[in-house]
Design a protein that fits this description.
The chain is of the alpha/beta class and about 375 residues long. The protein is about 20% helix and about 15% strand. It has a 7-stranded parallel sheet, with helices on both faces. A two-stranded antiparallel ribbon has the order 1-2. A two-stranded antiparallel sheet has the order 3-4. Helix 3 (about 160-170) links the parallel strand 6 (about 145) and strand 7 (about 185-190). The radius of gyration is 24 Å and the shape is globular. It binds calcium ion (3 copies).
């Protein structure tokens, strides 16, 4: 018979009569033939088992935005699965060390034990020799740049940038603290926000730094500086380099289609503008919205992440929502490096989970879904994968 074309590879002491066989037939046909054979009690494929994608980080249970089991956050229980389906997305991989995300913010605590292994270093720069070895205009920029202070030390004196960085890429499954959306990546700290904010010109330089290094995604949890043609053109030129600019929608509780807040409200197809939702799928009261100017929602109320002084902290804001999206963009680029920025953004926008609180409040009316955005088949996406 056809079934005779199989070779026995193994027998199992623990299960008498069980044989592992290799057959030349397609799996479905082989199974059908075995199952029709009265001498075979049962036949099944040698299923691939995978390690659980739930990480061992002790504060992972606080990260309702990644995996919501209905846990109590700030005194109220969440709604199970009101999250971005991160554990499901991690089944497809948890990040790679060659995936760089620029964090244009207040800097990052480089010695934080849950971040220090995931920080970008400049391969073209010799540290401490006083020479701009890679010729990018910055001397000894070994790990990003501080555009606010004008030096090579983008340390975080605030906490905001360290919190954002941890949501994107805190070291996952290392038995410590929290897990980032990407367990392994390279955070490029670009500080331009000082204690009283930062200038548009410094933000443009920071974005240019990232784009010149070929970085395809940046997180921009800042805004409110008015309509700058220069910033618009900078982001537009970054688009020509395939760069995805993830922007916080802003925290004024306004509709940015009527009262624009920039850069979130710029009409450019390489900007993802992100509103904040809570652990019960409700739009945050502070979150800006906009059926045109805001693209989607993401977790942004009581987000647990890394903080300065090697600590952890809760924080709320669209600033906390945007890095969830930036992390997922990085994971999509890692899995499908050939995609254009439009295709990656198409995947994000076509795969959101609709929720009533966002209906009419943003382009998609839904919340980021990491699993669907990253899946092999993303049916709504323009790439046809
Ligand atoms: Ca340099
Ligand atoms: Ca140097
Ligand atoms: Ca960790």
């Amino acid at each position: 018979s056809q079934a005779a074309q199989c070779t026995t590879l193994r027998r199992f002491a623990l299960v008498p009569g069980l044989e592992q066989v290799r057959t030349t037939l397609p799996a479905a046909q082989a199974l059908a033939e075995f199952r029709a054979n009265p001498w075979v009690e049962y036949a099944e494929p040698d299923y691939i088992q995978r390690k659980s994608a739930v990480p061992n980080d002790p504060y992972f249970g606080l990260e309702w935005g990644l995996h919501n089991l209905g846990q109590v956050i700030n005194g109220t229980p969440g709604i199970p699965d009101a999250d971005i389906d991160m554990t499901e997305a991690w089944e497809l991989g948890t990040g790679h060390a060659d995936s760089v995300v620029a964090v244009i913010d207040t800097g990052v605590q480089s010695s934080h034990p849950d971040l220090d292994g995931n920080l970008w270093t400049n391969p073209g720069e010799v540290p401490g020799n006083g020479i701009d070895d890679d010729g990018n205009g910055y001397v000894d920029d070994v790990r990003g740049w501080d555009f606010f202070a004008g030096d090579n030390d983008p340390e975080d004196e605030d906490g905001h940038g360290t919190h954002v960085a941890g949501t994107i890429g805190a070291e996952g499954n290392n038995g410590l603290g929290v897990a980032g959306v990407s367990w392994r990546c390279r955070i490029m700290p670009l500080r331009f926000l000082g204690p009283l904010g930062g200038t548009t010109s410094d933000a443009i330089d920071a974005l240019n730094y990232a784009v010149a290094k070929g970085v395809r995604v940046s997180n921009n949890s800042w805004g409110g500086g008015g309509n700058s043609m220069a910033l618009y053109e900078a982001i537009e030129n970054a688009r020509a380099m395939g760069h995805v600019f993830v922007a916080a929608a802003g925290n004024r509780g306004e509709n940015i289609d009527r009262l624009p807040e920039y850069p979130a409200a710029y009409d450019l197809d390489n900007i993802l503008s992100v509103a904040a939702v809570d652990h019960r799928d409700q739009l945050a009261s502070f979150s800006n919205v906009g059926a045109v100017g805001v693209d989607l929602g993401a977790p942004g109320v009581y987000v647990a992440s890394t903080y300065t002084n090697s600590t952890y902290a809760w924080a709320s804001g669209t600033s906390m929502a945007a890095p969830h999206v930036a992390g997922v963009v990085a994971l999509i680029f890692e899995r499908f490096p050939e995609l254009t920025h439009q295709q990656v953004i198409g995947r994000i926008l076509s795969s959101t989970r609709a929720t009533p609180s966002l209906a009419g409040k943003c382009v998609t009316g839904g919340v980021l879904n990491a699993m669907a955005a990253r899946a092999d088949r993303n049916l709504g996406g323009p790439d046809g994968l």
